[in-house]
Amino acid sequence: MKIMVGGTFSPLHAGHKKLISRSFELAGPEGLVVVGLSSDNFAGRKSHPVMTYEARKAALERYIESLGTATTWEVEALNDRYGSALEADFDILVVSEETLPVGLEINKLRRAKGKKMVEIHQIACVLAEDGRWISSTRIIRGEIDDVGRVIRREE
Amino acid sequence: MKIMVGGTFSPLHAGHKKLISRSFELAGPEGLVVVGLSSDNFAGRKSHPVMTYEARKAALERYIESLGTATTWEVEALNDRYGSALEADFDILVVSEETLPVGLEINKLRRAKGKKMVEIHQIACVLAEDGRWISSTRIIRGEIDDVGRVIRREE
């Protein structure tokens, strides 16, 4: 199976790691995973400060290498929400609850172009210790760490 | 992996077959697939006539047997849209584009009950020869057959 998945991954937290590790499981050892990574220019539109593309890419590659997977993979820069997902020939788009709407939009745009529609796999979100989602925004605010431990409780 | 999937399957067409065969692939040979099948009472709310539960179950079982799968499976009667999916311990709910909203609702209800949220896998729809979706309604209307061949064109 050929899988596409994407994100900004700044910083790479437990929710992103699940998104990526599940993508590799779905691809299987003979499959391919293409990880789209927001370019600095595209990521610059986020409401919070973002690490450089090089730093984010290095952390992503270290994590993928730690999986010890036989699956072929590559990282591609995303200059918009879609990257090559509107044109590429692939099987499954892996999304989080946050990015499901983008996935549905990609299929709608593919259909309009006469491209094969793809399967969409939404992983379950990873909850932090406090029962709320793990998100980069919450980590940057200092509420939780990258595995979802609460750092400071609001009074 | 433990997979849940459901439908009325009246009649079982190429789109349903893809939904079911992909569920077995996602489960893997050591997994379990639970196929929810609308009861006669629940299916009776459809706008078109529905075959009996026994006839639909027999066709479904024949199809699953034709897959020659090693995966464990069972068919359970659905008396509502959720069946046991709100309570059961499982990994992935497999849905079509039509049933994605029910899948998202199941996760919301599971979360409210404190149950683990599940992954949602949406298969790509199967298009009929005329480029529109295959659906039981279109088959019953006599527009297409169960593999999506056009039977009669509107003038």
TrEMBL record, chains A, B:
Pathway(s) where this gene product acts: Cofactor biosynthesis; coenzyme A biosynthesis
Annotated Pfam families: CTP_transf_like
Assigned EC number: 2.7.7.3
Known catalytic reactions: (R)-4'-phosphopantetheine + ATP + H(+) = 3'-dephospho-CoA + diphosphate
Top-level class of the enzyme under EC nomenclature: transferase
Major location category of this protein: cytoplasm
GO BP term, pick one: coenzyme A biosynthetic process
Superkingdom in the source lineage: Archaea
Domain Cytidyltransferase-like positions: 4-141
Cited SUPFAM superfamilies: Nucleotidylyl transferase
GO terms of molecular function: ATP binding; pantetheine-phosphate adenylyltransferase activity
Location within or outside the cell: Cytoplasm
Gene3D superfamilies documented for this protein: HUPs
One Gene Ontology term, aspect cellular component: cytoplasm
Keywords tagged on the record: ATP-binding, Coenzyme A biosynthesis, Cytoplasm, Nucleotide-binding, Nucleotidyltransferase, Transferase
Similarity comment: Belongs to the eukaryotic CoaD family.
The protein's role, per its UniProt record: Reversibly transfers an adenylyl group from ATP to 4'-phosphopantetheine, yielding dephospho-CoA (dPCoA) and pyrophosphate.
Protein name per Swiss-Prot or TrEMBL: Phosphopantetheine adenylyltransferase
Organism: Methanofollis formosanus
